Amino acid sequence: MPKLLSGAEIVFKSLEDQKVEYIFGYPGGAVLPIYDELKNHKTIKHILARHEQGAGHAAEGYARSSGKPGVLLVTSGPGATNAVTALTDAYMDSIPIVCISGQVPTHLIGTDAFQECDTTGITRPCTKHNWLVKDVNDLADIMNQAFRIATTGRPGPVLVDIPKDIQFNKGVYKVSKNKLEKKLNGALTHKINLKEVDKFIEMIKKSSKPIFYSGGGVINSGPKASELLRELVSLTGFPITSTLQGLGAYPGDDPQFLGMLGMHGTYEANNAMHDCDLMINVGARFDDRITGKIDEFSPKSKKIHIDIDPSSIGKNVKVDLAITSDVTELLQAVIKRFKEKNKNFIESNKQKTAKWWTRINEWREKKSLNFINSKETIKPQHAVQRLYELTKNQDTFITTEVGQHQMWAAQHYKFNKPNRWMTSGGLGTMGYGLPAAIGVQIAHPKKLVVDIAGEASILMNIQEMSTAIQYRLPVKIFILNNEYMGMVRQWQELLHDKNYSESYTEALPDFVKLAEAYGAVGIRAKNPDELDEKIKEMIKIDKPVIFDCVVDKVENCYPMIPSGKPHNQMLLGPEDEKEEVSDEGKTLV
Amino acid sequence: MSKPKSAYSQPTKFGKEDHHIIVVWVDNEAGVLARVIGLFSGRGYNIESLAVAEIDKIKHLSRITIVTKGTPEVIQQIKLQLGKLIPVHKVADFSRNDPKILFKELALLKVVGATKKLDKAKKLCKKHDGLILDKTKKSFVIQVTALRREIDKLVTILKPLGLISVSRTGAVAMTKGDEVFTQ
Fold first, then answer.
1. Which domains, ranges and CATH numbers included, belong to chain B?
2. What is the C-alpha end-to-end distance of chain B, expressed in Å?
């Protein structure tokens, strides 16, 4: 007779088997048996958040910066519903999260019991898969599958809902052989096809106006994928641009890098995407913020799309060569084949792409990220640039909230390594950055972690300051404070006849005092002269810091592809604004 | 404001919509139907009819047949998105006009009226090999298996003859010949 374990013990045994070190969570009635068991497992540390959404984003930050799955533990009812935003965020950005939620006892399910909700029903559309455990003997298998599903194929969140009686019941810990082996995201075979590889290389050789367009898939494929991408880009000598989520896969200060593309991408990246004759999409998904007006998106190019998720291919944009594969595996095969046959490719190709590079350098001359600096007020772009200059010599991790500050961070902070940039791209969750920074700091205790924030976003999960203090996590919150929901204000200015409806925050806390109230340090910078000194001061402090950077209130984020315009019609700055956006265009973003 | 101003793009292209029959083999576990139809409603796909039942008692496999309408891109997305669901084993997609595929839908029709009208109604059903399941002086219940559009037509012509109740299954499908759909 095998040893019988309680459901709660089985949960921890699987967490140990998966080598989980940290759980982010918040206790409550329906998960108490699991919390009870925590004390018996010294290798697993629980991080108590102040809100389940915060716990979820912290798990995301942990996962994104470490490459390991994040584990989230919440109670039934409100605990689960509070976690929904974080789960949806992880689903959109393909972050592996295993969420364990308590549920009312089996016999009370369906009776509208206290803190009961249909957790599996609510989370079905925002998880890769979820389970309601009805028999304690299934629990070990389900936990094992949960980790597998979260981390394989296109990663994502999963949820295991465990009724309280199942947590108490005794059962066997037995993991049966995995039946999912054959199946990754619906693609049955993942073997690299040599024909596809050859076609890939053929297309590379034929093109004279090529561009690489890389995305979050490169980061998700692991650090090796970034190395391979760098190798292939340098072998071909082609230009490369990146999506918001892909930043860091290719060095931000490399001359072949054109900067981020898309709505707030650089002039050179967007124009190169529009005019290219070959687009090589590596692990990106043709998101609407990237493509702009879809029927005028890169009209003359052949397109190659590498994605691990077959449903991402052909969803928004038709492609000429679709390869369903993990980025690392495919790039390995391509590079090997490429080297065998094309020893002197760069030399022979230089002439072919010379004109293209001349064109790109002309676009670069526009210096689309430039802004008019000021001696009186701190320009937000300037603040990000100074932050970058003063932190670039150490291994810095950046998280952001959502809005103008996020785009300025993406434009002006140059990333050289993958997993250093954590931002909510797909869902665009305000309040993401602080809890994510906490998760990052847990995974990298000695590193500098900065949340580039806006004053509106930060207030959405400000309670997590308390978590940072409790675990002595010296996260730095760098608030670009313009008292407006800046991106909303920008849209209202450009598209809604300057009707600034509800986008100004009439009452804001004193962030310095707020920091002190939590037991952290508050710093305020009001003019450009003191900015550098204060940033240096912030970096030196070994405690959480809220940095209230008082910036220009009405600065807009440029460049910008206005609504309804293709890539080659960008607004570069205030002088371009006079051009009226058409009524049709106003319905777009 | 003259025109609505929102933050998202408008659809610019409309492809030609076509009827397709999607067949999905799934593990018959709790919530599996909700996953499949939730995917349809969540992503804005149509469901014109749905038929589902367990087809293997030992392996607990169910076969779901969904009739849907969409552009080729949408149909392709439906197949790929279904393929990603964990309990889904395989997905088949048949065009409604595919000559190699059999489609059938079953309907129970109840007609109430005077003898003369009932006789006329029975005659009209004959063409579809209707099977009379219940008969009284004033009524009959007939079972018809046919294509969807044939049943639609029958329902229209039976209406004036006293058709008062219609119950229909969704379409089910199978390939002709000795072929079996594999993926």
1. 18-95 (3.30.70.260), 101-173 (3.30.70.1150)
2. 53
